[in-house]
Amino acid sequence: MSNDKLDDLISQTEKFVQNFERFYHDRLLIDNGIELKKASDPKSEELNQVGKKVKTIPLKTEKSEKETGGVAEMDIFGNETVKREEWEFAESLDQLNSLIHDCKKCELWKTRTNFVFGVGNPNADIVVIGEAPGADEDAQGEPFVGRAGQLLNKILDATGFAREEVFICNILKSRPPGNRNPLPIEVEACRPYLEKQLKLVNPKLILLLGRVAAESLLKTKEPLAKLRGKIHNYKGWKVMVTFHPAALLRNPNWKRPTWDDMLQLKALYEEMTGKTIESKGMK
Q1: How far is residue 244's CA from residue 233's CA, in Å, rounded to a whole number?
Q2: Which long-range contacts (CB under 8 A, 24 or more apart) does 262-270 make?
Q3: How far apart are alpha carbons 12 and 261 in whole angstroms?
Q4: Does residue 36 surpass a pLDDT of 90?
Q5: Residue 1 CB contacts under 8 Å (≥ 6 apart), including other chains
Q6: CA separation (Å) from 31 to 1, 13, 50?
Q7: Rounded to an integer, what is the distance from CA 165 to the centroid of its chain?
Q8: Residue 50: how many CB atoms within 10 A of its CB?
Q9: Dist. CA 273–CA 283, nearest whole Å
Q10: Cβ 50 vs Cβ 89: under 8 Å
C-alpha cells in the first residue's frame, strides 16, 4: 500500500474514532499500539505507563461553527445531520435580539427602518401578539407605541395588567410597506423567531390581537367571530383571541366584546395561577 493510501486510511480511522469516542468515553486502544484519548493540547505527545507512545487528537464537539454562523450536528461517523443557526441556541431574549436584528430572510429588510423585536417582561405570564409593526413602531423599534398601542395599554391596565408585566411582540419583526397584511412567506420566515421568543418567555397564556395574527399563528381560516371566546392551543400554550386595538379605533362598538374577551382572559389566568387580579374596568 502506498504512503498516500496509508495516510488516508489512518486519517479516516482517526476521524471515526474521534466521533465514536463522543458516544463511548472509555479509553480506546488500536492494533498499532497508539492510544487515542482526550487532551487539552491536541498537538501534544506523551508516554503511557508501559512506554507506548500516546497520540492525542482533538475530539469534535456535536456543534461545529460554520462560516455562515450556522451549526452542524455530527453523527458517529462524522456526517453532518442537522444544520442549525446560532440564534437557535440563544439563552435570553436580549441575546436572541442581538443575533437576529439584522435578519434578511425576507424582502422586508429592504424597506424597514428598525427591526421590531418585542418589549416587556422576559418572564411574563402573558405574551401579547399583534400582526406586524406600523409606521410608529418601525420608526421607534418598539411594538405598539402609536395610537393602537396607547389603547392596548389602557385595555391591559383596565384588566389588571401593566404593560411592563407582559411581553408584547408581533408575528412579523419588520413593517410591511403601507401596513399591508403579512405575506405567507414573510410569516413563515419570522415564525421560528416568534417560537423561540415563546420558548424563552414560556408564558402561561398568549393573547392574539386581530384576525391576521390569529390566522398566522394558529394557521386557520376561521373568522374572528368563531375564534373569539374559545381557548386554543399552540404547541402547549393556551391561546385566546380578541380584536386588534386598531380595529377598536375604527369601530368603538367593538370595545364591549373586547372587554368581554379580556374578562375571560383574566378569569383563565386566575384559574391557572391561583392569583386574584383587580380589574378597573374599561371607560
Answers
A1: 20
A2: 262/155, 262/158, 262/159, 263/159, 264/229, 264/240, 265/126, 265/159, 265/205, 265/207, 265/240, 266/159, 266/160, 268/205, 268/231, 268/238, 268/240, 269/125, 269/126, 269/204, 269/205
A3: 63
A4: no
A5: 9
A6: 18, 12, 15
A7: 20
A8: 7
A9: 27
A10: no
Residue 77, pLDDT score? 64
Q: Count CB neighbours of 204 within 10 A.
A: 15
Instruction: Give me the chain's average pLDDT, please.
Output: 83
- One-letter amino acid at 281 equals G
pLDDT bin (cut points 50, 70, 90) of residue 111 is very high
Domains of the chain listed by start with CATH number: 1-83 (no CATH), 90-273 (3.40.470.10)
Written as one letter, the residue type at 231 is: I
Query: In the Cβ-directed half-sphere of 215, how many Cα atoms lie within 13 Å?
Result: 15
Condensed to tens digits (0 to 9), the pLDDT of residues 196-237 reads 999 999 999 999 999 999 999 999 999 999 999 999 999 999
> In angstroms, rounded to a whole number, what is the distance separating the alpha carbons of residues 147 and 178?
17
Q: How far apart (Å, rounded) are the C-alpha atoms in residues 54 and 76?
A: 23
What is the reported pTM?
Answer: 0.73
